[in-house]
Write a structure and sequence with these properties.
Strand order of the largest sheet of chain A: 1-3-2
CATH class of the largest domain in chain A: Mainly Alpha
CATH architecture of the largest domain in chain A: Up-down Bundle
Oligomer: homodimer
Chain lengths: 224, 224
DNA sequence: ATAAGTATAATTGTATACAATCATACGATT
DNA sequence: AATCGTATGATTGTATACAATTATACTTAT
């Protein structure tokens, strides 16, 4: 009847258990396995140096995440994502990121706010220098801080999932001018949270995701 | 490279594959397995007449759904849901049901609208007669129609998951006066959709979930 | 030549066997 | 008596074996 801490989950990601799961997940999101491609249990197993058992368990989880589609007695197929799916996900994310920003305004700690501020200033620097990799890293971290700061395990789980999910289609979105504009939006969100303006923070976070989507569509990245 | 239809997923739920998964899920949601209870693979397997393999696969899926927490080499424990978790989920659902109603307004078919209207009138009848079981059934169906009518696989998947999820805490919410009030809200949502008033439909659906939550808290059902 | 039917191969579904890890109890040592 | 160490049992992690299903190729009949 022991009450194990949820933090266990986080470490699991990088420990032995779930290694297979995350590797396959990564390979789907990175585009190594194409849409509608059939994944064979033995083939994947050999590639990862394991038997079918852990692969099957990973397949079942990936199906639940919507990344795989398993047809009984036939096979596992990489789920096809249509441009409408992407649009829907961004609209859903827009609402949830807004709620996250609202809750973060209420619950953010001094340390988290400091890191948020530092993040924005650092991103300014790297945007000016054209360091796209660091910019992408900082963008990820900015949202991650908010996910933690909203102080809701439920919302955090959803948003982390979606955030990883959209990496599949978002890869090069921060390149070009969007990087600087995006960080300017980050700054405004940060300022609103700092000023404890919940409504403004929510509205800005809403719009931030919509803008990211619009930019992605403009660059023609939505039809993968 | 065959393109299997998503409808396969639906039938799977009730076919052989996933039987174990749904049974265990049901037993957790129904409260048969208590919070923090440890589930043993062999014990569950014997109870369902299967070996450990399908049970393990189900465990992995249930962990991803947040219903189980698996600690490596130790065991699977039923996830404890705090009252804050419940509150968060209802807030999240409120936003998503609102979005669903908005999209349903844009995409609902004639047949779906008819069924929605019929649903409301039928529920009126059963509410007056005090038929609580039928009322609960109609409530489920009302939301289900909206999930289908919003015409978004992504949003539907989320909302169906949450809807089943909250059954764990919602069981007796429709009893008492809430049944009639709830159906009056259904009627307003339906009318707004019929009038193609997206904003109103969204707002009403938002409030509908908030009201359900407030009622649940008032009745003291949130601390399970 | 085409189509149906059958046999063979490949793949998934499930059960079982073995390995690794963890919990518990007992005993030895201080 | 308390504590550490070891041994034993229980449980999970993984691999493999077998069963069931599906896909493919070949044969045969029209």
């Amino acid at each position: 009847m022991a009450r194990y801490d949820v933090k266990q989950e986080v470490t699991d990601k990088y420990s032995l258990r779930g290694r297979v799961f995350h590797k396959i997940r990564e390979d789907i999101l990175s585009g190594k396995y194409k849409e509608y491609e059939e994944l064979k249990e033995v083939a994947i197993g050999e590639e990862l140096g394991v038997s079918r058992t852990p692969v099957r368990e990973a397949f079942r989880q990936l199906e639940l995440e919507g990344l795989l589609q398993i047809v009984p007695n036939k096979g596992a197929y990489v789920t096809g994502i249509t441009s409408k799916d992407v649009q829907d996900i961004y609209m859903i994310r827009s609402l949830l990121e807004g709620l996250c920003a609202r809750w973060a305004t209420e619950n953010i700690t001094r340390e988290q706010l400091d890191e948020l501020e530092e993040n924005v200033y650092l991103a300014d620097f790297h945007a000016a220098k054209g360091h796209m990799e660091q910019l992408a890293e900082l963008d990820n971290r900015f949202h991650q801080i908010l996910y933690e700061a909203c102080h809701s395990k439920q919302l955090e789980r959803l948003l982390v999932d979606y955030h990883e999910y959209v990496l599949r289609v978002r890869k090069k979105t921060l390149a070009g001018r969007r990087g600087q504009v995006s960080n300017e939006e980050h700054r405004q969100i940060m300022e609103a949270i700092k000023a404890k303006d919940k409504d403004k923070a929510e509205m800005l976070a809403n719009q931030h995701i919509i803008n990211a989507y619009d930019n992605m569509v403009k660059n023609g990245l939505h039809d993968m």
